Amino acid sequence: MATPLGDYLRLARAGFVMAREGVASRIDPAVRPPGSEPLFALAGLIERGGPASSAARLGAALSRLGPSYVKLGQFLATRPDVVGPQLARDLELLQDRMPPFPQDVAEATIARTFDRPVGEVYARLDLPLAAASIAQVHQGEVVDADGTARRVAVKVLRPDVQRRFRIDLSSFYRAARLGESSTPEGKRLRLVAVVDTLARSVSMEMDLRLEAAALSELAQNTREDADFRVPAVDWDRTGREVLTTEWVDGIKLNNLDALRAAGHDLPQLGRIVMQSFLRHALRDGFFHADMHPGNLFIDADGKLVAVDCGIMGRLGHKERRFLAEILFGFITRDWLRTAQVHFEAGYVPPHHSVEDFAQAIRAIGEPIYSRRADQISMAKLLTLLFEVTALFDMQTRPELLLLQKTMVVVEGVARNLDPQLDMWKTAEPVVRAWIERNLGPAGRIEEVATGFGAVGRSLQTLPELIAQGQRIAAQLDAATRDGLTLSPQTTDAIGRAEGRGNRWMTAALWVIAGLVAAQMLF
């Protein structure tokens, strides 16, 4: 069970391990909290030397601390404003590297989930192929009723992972509350909300039935897409701790040599990755939020196949509209409209000037307009963006964290496939189509039709509302015809209180009596 002392001890151990592996020295000084210089100086004394890369040492530190910290590291890759752009890129490279757990433990989990031996569930179950902080993946084989054998991917939850995360999340909350209470910057960054988002994400990932449902929903949304698909779910072999899906035969998107050898057009693949993500986010409001190259394949038909839907993002219609208008403002260089959208969305406090914010947006957008991806320094761009958010008191928007992180990752994947990719020209057809469909004449007509539908539904309930009004009127008439009447129990209690001279009890009872009368009236 988590206790305050236990939280602080775990945080102290984590700090030592991080400092030992040189993680503290990788944090950008610009994002370090005020007054923390002595702690970072001490961390420098603890740091060990060695030739290993910063990403490798970071991976070693997080692996030592356990699956909760690997997941935290992956999540903090979404927050370069907290850890700095360079460390965020190192964290993104981790992709949940963890040692696998034993085969017999995985088989015991499968047998417990389906209440029958593993041999009756799968004709074959191979050793794990990949292991992450939440689960690991095996290749298996099943035989259908007609005798057809087919390969499947079997994802099995790590043993005891729920308890570990519950304890470590207590420590993360402790650190977040300390950060918010000690510095105004920590409060602006909403560190507790960051941990809240992590906790929700992890709780969803630890029920593999929810991942199966996400795959099913994404498949339904993209069934008409010519260049994107997800593996089909085997629902008969899926439970809370086990997920079985179709096995994907394809080439990973980071294997450029194999993609070229297979004759694929790499720049076209880069456009497919970026446009698929934007289409899902804007059109459907439901997108794969972990689109690193290890989760993306190209199948024999040239389709982009996304696996591992444990982390998904959702956007409401309002958020989609703001996203589309902001992106379109950047594409068309309409900085004033882009600024106005930020104010309409409530992203910038109203006491600031729209014109001043438009000027700041222009300072971000103009240097990257019409430049290829290889000509843009994402580190400098992110640094400038964070300076602007701090200057205009913009608080973190937890509902947009996954979107922001995925946009950065997708841009990186597309850049790897096509270093000369123009992300604005690539995004423009998808964004323009959404705006024309939803904010143009067709969208306005649909809004009017939706409004008429709401009015129609209200009219359907009108008789019930009239009847309810008549009942209230009758109760009011009965209650006031001979004056308000309190129940005998209430008046007796008031009398006893007065008899004892307890003025406070009398006042409290009269308040209760008043509330009872008000309830009768209304």
TrEMBL record:
Domain Protein kinase: 123-505
Pfam families named among the record's database cross-references: ABC1
Keyword Lyase carried by entry: no
Family: Belongs to the protein kinase superfamily. ADCK protein kinase family.
PANTHER family noted in UniProt: CHAPERONE-ACTIVITY OF BC1 COMPLEX CABC1 -RELATED (PTHR10566), PROTEIN ACTIVITY OF BC1 COMPLEX KINASE 7, CHLOROPLASTIC (PTHR10566:SF113)
InterPro entries in the cross-refs: ABC1_dom, Kinase-like_dom_sf, Prot_kinase_dom, UbiB, UbiB_bact, UbiB_kinase
Recorded superkingdom: Bacteria
Protein's name according to its UniProt entry: Protein kinase domain-containing protein
Pathway stated in the Swiss-Prot or TrEMBL entry: Cofactor biosynthesis; ubiquinone biosynthesis [regulation]
SUPFAM superfamilies: Protein kinase-like (PK-like)
Keywords assigned: ATP-binding, Cell inner membrane, Cell membrane, Kinase, Membrane, Nucleotide-binding, Transferase, Transmembrane, Transmembrane helix, Ubiquinone biosynthesis
GO biological process: ubiquinone biosynthetic process
GO MF term list: ATP binding; protein kinase activity
The UniProt record lists the keyword Ribonucleoprotein: no
